[in-house]
Write a structure and sequence with these properties.
Helix content: 40-55%
Radius of gyration: 53 Å
Number of helices: 28
Largest sheet: 6 strands, mixed
CATH topology of the largest domain: Rossmann fold
Structural class: alpha/beta
CATH class of the largest domain: Alpha Beta
Number of strands: 35
CATH superfamily of the largest domain: Response regulator
Strand content: 15-25%
Distance between the termini: 118 Å
Length: 928
């Protein structure tokens, strides 16, 4: 309906639109009641013929003359400053100038400035050397280095099209000079200065140019919000008449030489004929005047009706939310609604080819116009670059016909579909991403209908059910691959899910076609679809999760057992301390009864075996002290050889082959013995039908590539302990995990998976490494590498023959266990010492303060009520800094030792201890 009205009234509207245009302009007069006395204008100083400098450096050109004329019309003094374009933009941005001239309007600049109406259109081609061909559009510039002017609008336009190899210059003249010097062969600058300098430098034959890459329009601009100044600027230029403008253009652009002598003669001969014709016309005009007068009243009535229709039609067109345009028979725009003006600017009087850029989509746009001029109504989608951004337009173009069906122009409507297109693309991309995620995730995804039947599933869910293709499970209930003992539970949970809308953390066992059970964790949500409610379900294989839970339970159980073992060992050590103490005292007091002495020796031997048992318990609970001291590896193996022989079965041949040289390392004898016990036990279990076990030692120098192969931290000399068996051996997969906690290949109840893990940890705490060599059916060899040291080993046998020393000093004994305190006191007093007792930590501090001058040594348990042994010692040192201490404990964790190794300078005796060892240590500390 709208199109039919437009077609019917388009020509009268055009006449009336032209009539009302000046009225619209006059309606917006600026408020110049407070006009400034002076304004500062900045612009490029290198843009001939609009503005450039003469040989003396003075500014000249069309703009200088126009602003001079503007100054006369307005009475406002103009201070015009020419400079490079980038600097001019900084001037206006920093408030050092009021107006900037010769500026192109872009979306980015529109946020910073308010612009005047355009006053000239500038084409911006690409210029290139004659040797280059194939440059037709923006895309063809890829790969070329392009000269551009610093701060020019062309830079943003090129970058939006992916052209980034740009070389910026301060002025157009410098760009053309660079082209003359062959520094660049392609440049993109405004046409007028480009042609000026190409001709000035005699380069017009060496360079060609493309069709305009884009067209821009010169505006004058003020800072954003300064509308009053902009109105004053516009008003001043409106006062300059077209004749004055034409005079300035002619001054700087020149005129064509069209008149010659023959032309003058022709004009004179023709003037007479024109005079006669004019006279005849006057007579004819007089005759027609009467008829015109008669028609005038009719025309006025018609115009009145047309005005009403025109107003209605104009309001309709202006309110349209999409672009509306009309092109006359000469191919020029003569009508645009507000939406079109916003998108295209004021292009009235211009042709589409002047507005639409020269690129493939633009050509299609122009082709649609040509088809409409040929009589076709064209509908379809086209693309267009608006401010460097691609827009998708649905266009309808139709011809305008007069009463004789002759085409007088075309009408067009443009619907911007860019937002819808982008939404569709984003939705499509999102669907692709989530589809890829669902297809590749290691979590099963399945959609069920209200009956629990499979509608769709991803590959991972198909694998969880034990099938290979979706078609095998589609349309089947999930209970088909649920374990028999959980089918009813699964069916009930599906029903429950539909009732409450979700299911969380449900665990169900699936069974595949081979009968293998797989535990599954299920989380499901009900969603409403056009096909009714459906269940979206995520299914996760929790086999590894359950293994970890089992390992955690095992670790917690072992930790509880370890804590129990540590507690038992602590209490047992106190009992053994009393037994060994009283037995030692009895042995000293019995002189002649050899039989009774033998009984006491048996008591002490049994107590030592009990001490070894507590040693093992503390090692198991990881509460054993690591007391590193120089030790001969060969002596440790000799000492444990008999115990190892009892551990292995009789059908296993056990051999020991030790190095002839002493292999001295920093080691804790008890923990190395524990490692050997663990390795021997594993070797025994690997030879159920008998075999041979060999423990050997040697030394080796490790460095370079050999160091890497044995996984040691430093180069140097190492002691090597080899434990080799002829058992079943191990595959690579087992070798890679054998030192992990809780990893075991033994049957349930025959192994905890802790032995090798503990052995590995002990060797690492000794700054060594442990390596394994094994193949199925070829036995196993484990090699332990411990760094050799130069320290000497104390001769323990010599210390035993030295008589037990006596003393007369006063010792503060701090022990909360009465039995241990009594036996320790008795032992010390039997050898001459005076003993002061303290029952706990606080009592010890009080007693020491009272007897500080008499007490040179404190013997203290570490863990006690109220204050620990360490706190007692620290308090005593504040009272008497030179006081000495010996700590005793049945717990290794009692020692103040963050690293697990006995700290230097702290004397420690582990319970249970022999009386002679205690007495020698007391004398040693007192004499130090």
């Amino acid at each position: 309906m709208i199109l039919s009205k437009i077609t019917r009234y388009i020509f009268p509207i055009a006449v009336i639109f032209a009539f009302f245009s000046p009225l619209r302009c006059n309606a917006q007069q600026p408020d110049i009641s407070k006009k400034p006395q002076t304004i500062t204008v900045v612009s490029d100083d290198n843009y001939p013929p609009y503005i450039f400098r003469d040989t003396n450096g003075n500014l000249q050109g069309i703009l200088i003359d126009e602003w001079t004329l503007w100054e006369k019309k307005t009475g406002i003094k103009v201070k015009f400053i020419g400079m490079d374009w980038a600097k001019a933009q900084r001037f206006i941005a920093e408030g050092r100038a009021d107006v900037i001239d010769t500026m192109f309007l872009t979306e980015e600049r529109a946020r910073l400035y308010d612009f005047s109406k355009p006053y000239v259109t500038i084409e911006v081609p690409v210029f290139f050397h004659n040797n280059i061909s194939g440059i037709t559009d923006v895309a063809s510039l890829q790969g070329f280095t392009i000269g551009v002017k610093e701060g020019d609008a062309s830079i943003g336009m090129l970058k939006k099209h992916g052209i980034t190899t740009l070389r910026e210059y301060a002025s157009y003249e410098e760009i053309v000079k660079a082209a003359a010097d062959q520094k660049i062969k392609v440049f993109c600058i405004d046409g007028p200065p480009a042609f000026y300098y190409l001709y000035k430098m005699d380069l017009e034959k060496e360079y060609r140019h493309s069709m305009p890459l884009y067209s821009g329009q010169f505006h004058r601009a003020v800072r954003k919000g300064d509308k009053q100044l902009l109105n004053i600027i516009e008003d001043g230029f409106r006062r300059i008449s077209p004749k004055e403008h034409s005079g300035l253009e002619k001054k700087w652009r020149g005129s064509s030489l069209l008149i010659n002598p023959d032309s003058v003669r022709y004009i004179l001969n023709s003037s007479f004929a024109v005079f006669i014709a004019a006279l005849a016309l006057m007579l004819w005009n007089h005759m027609l005047r009467r008829k015109v007068s008669q028609k005038t009243s009719q025309l006025r009535e018609t115009l009145g009706a047309l005005k009403g229709n025109e107003a209605m039609l104009r309001a309709t067109i202006e309110s349209l939310p999409f672009d509306f345009f009309a092109i006359d028979r000469e191919g020029c725009y003569f009508m645009l609604n507000d939406a079109a003006l916003h998108h295209w600017g004021d292009v009235i009087g211009k042709k589409p080819e002047e507005v639409i850029l020269d690129y493939p989509e633009g050509k299609r746009w122009l082709e649609n116009n040509q088809r409409a001029f040929a009589g076709e109504t064209v509908r379809g989608e086209v693309e267009y670059l608006f401010d460097g951004e691609r827009h998708y337009i649905h266009e309808i173009v139709t011809p305008i016909r007069d009463d004789n069906q002759q085409i007088q122009g075309i009408l067009g409507i443009n619907f911007d579909m860019t937002g819808q297109k982008r939404t569709e693309e984003a939705l499509r991309e999102s669907i692709q991403k989530y589809s890829a995620l669902i297809e590749t995730t290691d979590t099963g995804f399945v959609i069920l209908d209200s009956k629990g039947l499979v509608l769709d599933a991803n590959p991972e869910y198909v694998r969880l059910t034990g099938h290979e293709r979706l078609e095998e499970i589609a349309g089947r209930p999930v209970t088909d691959w649920t374990a028999d003992y959980e089918k009813e539970k699964n069916a009930a949970e599906v029903k429950k899910c539909f009732e409450q809308g979700f299911v969380r953390n449900l665990e169900i066992d699936y069974v595949d076609k081979q009968g293998k059970n797989t535990p599954i964790e299920i989380n499901a949500t009900v969603v409403n679809t056009k096909n009714g409610p459906q269940i979206l379900t995520l299914c996760r294989n929790i086999t590894e999760h359950r293994k970890l839970e089992e390992q955690l339970r095992q670790a917690q159980k072992m930790e509880a057992i370890g804590q129990l073992a540590g507690g038992v060992a602590h209490d047992f050590n106190n009992i053994l301390s009393a037994i060994m103490g009283y037995a030692s005292i009895s042995r000293l007091k019995i002189k002649d009864d050899e039989e009774l002495k033998g009984y006491i020796e048996h008591i002490l031997a049994s107590a030592e075996r009990g001490a070894n048992l507590t040693h093992s318990l503390l090692a198991f609970s990881r509460k054993q002290v690591v007391e590193l001291k120089p030790s001969n590896i060969n002596d440790i193996i000799y000492g444990v050889q008999k115990i190892l022989a009892r551990v292995i079965s009789e059908d296993i041949e056990f051999k020991v082959n030790l190095s002839i040289e002493d292999l001295v390392v920093e080691a804790d004898k008890g923990q190395i013995e524990q490692v050997l016990m663990n390795l021997a036990t594993n070797a025994r279990d690997a030879m159920p039908n008998g075999g041979s076990l060999l423990i050997s030692t040697n030394s080796i120098e490790i460095g370079g590539g050999y160091m890497k192969s044995h996984i040691v931290d430093k180069a140097g000399r190492y002691a090597v302990i080899s434990v080799s068996d002829t058992g079943v051996g191990m595959e690579r997969a087992i070798r890679e995990h054998m030192f992990e906690p809780f990893f075991t290949t033994k049957e349930v109840g025959k192994g905890t998976g802790l032995g090798l893990a503990m052995a590995y940890g002990i060797i690492k705490r000794h700054n060594g490494s442990i390596n394994v060599y094994s193949e199925p059916g070829k036995g196993t060899t484990l090699k332990i590498y411990l760094p050799l040291v130069q320290s000497k080993i104390e001769d323990e046998q010599k210390t035993e023959v030295v008589p037990i020393p006596v003393g007369q000093e006063t010792i503060l004994l701090v022990e909360d266990d009465e039995v241990v305190r009594n036996v320790t006191k008795a032992t010390l007093e039997a050898f001459g010492y005076r003993v002061i007792e303290a029952l706990d930590g606080e009592d010890a501090v009080r007693v020491f303060a009272e007897n500080k001058d008499a007490v040179p040594l404190i013997i203290s348990d570490v863990i006690m009520p109220k204050k620990s042994g360490n706190e007692v010692y620290e308090a005593a040192r504040k009272i008497k800094p030179e006081v000495k201490v010996i700590f005793i404990s049945g717990y290794a964790s009692d020692v103040i030792n963050k690293g697990g190794v006995l700290a230097k300078g702290v004397t420690f005796i582990a319970k249970p201890f022999k009386s002679d060892n205690l007495l020698r240590k007391v004398r040693e500390v007192l004499d130090s």
